[in-house]
Write a structure and sequence with these properties.
The protein has 281 residues and is α/β, with parallel strands linked by helices. The protein has eleven helices and ten strands. Strand 4 (41-43), helix 2 and strand 5 form a beta-alpha-beta unit.
């Protein structure tokens, strides 16, 4: 699996397996099958409420810990320095780990400055190898960088061919932050997987549209997290390193930007109210 080097020298797999919206009772099986397929980067979050199942799959896999890259995220209700410290310890316990590879602030709301100070402490104590954020627009990301000591290694955001966020990516790269894509396939919305341009490119390479989209991200060195509960789809999503898109194909895909907006608008007031109201049980 190709790796990218984060701003602190930590290497991270370019493609990872995510467990968003996989029920806890199905997560252990899904992660076990993903690891068997060849994934070594696993992305979860406190808000997904399946960290324990992820931990069981990791423990039973027999894969050496140094070969795995495990990411989790802290939720809004645990924002603030002391709450975040406890939440980090809770996540480590549920995952059965003594150190995370990457921990992210899940949303740019609440006292995320206090959360960041707690993550910085965990980073200095080597409880976390790298720390970052998720869903931060460039203004909040830049302000966080300006007023703190550790620059986030990653900003995990929604991005796909219809919503490419090129300006956001440029702002991240300028500051040494790696863009990571959640929903790289737009969760099947907007007809992305039936797009005629992507379909034509896929046919030219004997690949699926999903594989073309993931390859497009890989060639830009944008880390991606994909999810599936089907072993055959897991394997298909991994089979993106045996072909290369041409410059012309990359340009054609770039022209699809703006076909749709975000699936979730983190700057919409009603959306912010909704997400702040979500409490973990």
């Amino acid at each position: 699996m190709p790796q990218v080097t984060l701003n602190n020298g930590v290497e991270m797999p370019l493609l990872g397996f995510g467990v968003f919206q996989i029920p806890p009772e199905d997560t252990e099986r899904a992660v076990t099958e993903a690891l068997a397929a060849g994934y070594r980067s696993i992305d979860t979050a406190a808000a997904y409420q399946n960290e324990e199942a992820v931990g069981r799959a990791l423990a039973r896999s027999g894969i050496p810990r140094e070969e795995l890259f495990v990411t989790t995220k802290l939720w809004i209700q645990d924002a603030g320095e002391e709450k975040a410290k406890r939440a980090l310890e809770t996540s480590l316990g549920k995952l059965g780990l003594d150190r995370l590879d990457l921990c992210l602030i899940h949303q740019p709301y609440g006292d995320y400055y206090g959360t960041w100070r707690s993550l910085e402490a965990g980073y200095r104590q080597d409880t976390v190898r790298a720390i970052g954020v998720s869903n931060f627009h460039p203004d909040r990301l830049t302000d966080l960088i300006t007023h703190n000591d550790v620059v986030p290694a990653v900003d995990q955001v929604e991005t796909h061919p219809y919503f490419q966020r090129i300006g956001d990516e440029e702002a991240m790269r300028k500051r040494g932050v790696r863009m990571e894509a959640w929903s790289p396939l737009a969760q099947g919305r907007h007809g992305l997987l039936q797009d005629p341009v992507l379909t034509e490119v896929a046919q030219a390479h004997g690949k699926s549209v999903a594989q073309v989209v993931l390859r497009w991200l890989m060639q830009r060195e944008v880390v991606a997290v994909v999810k599936s509960t089907k072993p055959e789809r897991m394997r298909e999503n991994l089979a993106v390193f045996d072909f290369e898109l041409t410059d012309g194909e990359m340009t054609r895909i770039a022209a699809l930007d703006g076909t749709s907006g975000p699936g979730f608008d983190h700057r919409d007031a009603d959306s912010v109210d909704f997400i702040n109201s979500m409490q973990l049980t």
